[in-house]
Q: What sequence folds into this?
């Protein structure tokens, strides 16, 4: 769709589905780049319905979680909605420990997340 290095974004109807290129989202430079690409979806491309599909993600750092929180705020400020899907149990556990599972709308799989926009 565009020249992203950290994400692969595609459209399913009105919903933008984002998959992550990196299996481990750890390095500060990668996280900054990832954040810029995600924020660009909302700020430049005006995307309002976004699903983050974590199928390929094995590890997320706390800095990456911070970017996701910021993304969620940007999407909400733009009157949009953000959903997450396909999160591995060990990453989901981090979301639960940090109570971020209460902040984010987390769905079992991509199809369920997309359907939740209806």
A:
């Amino acid at each position: 769709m565009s020249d992203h290095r950290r994400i692969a974004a595609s459209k399913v109807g009105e919903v933008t589905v984002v998959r992550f290129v990196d299996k481990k989202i750890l390095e500060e430079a990668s996280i900054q780049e990832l954040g810029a690409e995600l924020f660009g979806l909302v700020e430049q491309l005006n995307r309002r319905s976004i699903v983050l599909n974590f199928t390929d993600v094995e590890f997320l750092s706390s800095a990456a979680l911070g970017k996701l929180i910021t993304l969620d705020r940007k999407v909400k400020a733009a009157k949009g909605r953000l959903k997450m899907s396909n999160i591995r149990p060990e990453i989901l556990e981090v979301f639960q420990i940090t109570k971020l599972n209460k902040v984010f709308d987390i769905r079992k799989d991509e199809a369920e997340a997309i359907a939740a926009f209806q």
User: Anything to note?
Assistant: The chain is about 45% helix and 25% strand. Residues 28 and 63 are 8 Å apart (CA to CA). The chain has a mean pLDDT of 96. The two ends are 24 Å apart (CA to CA).
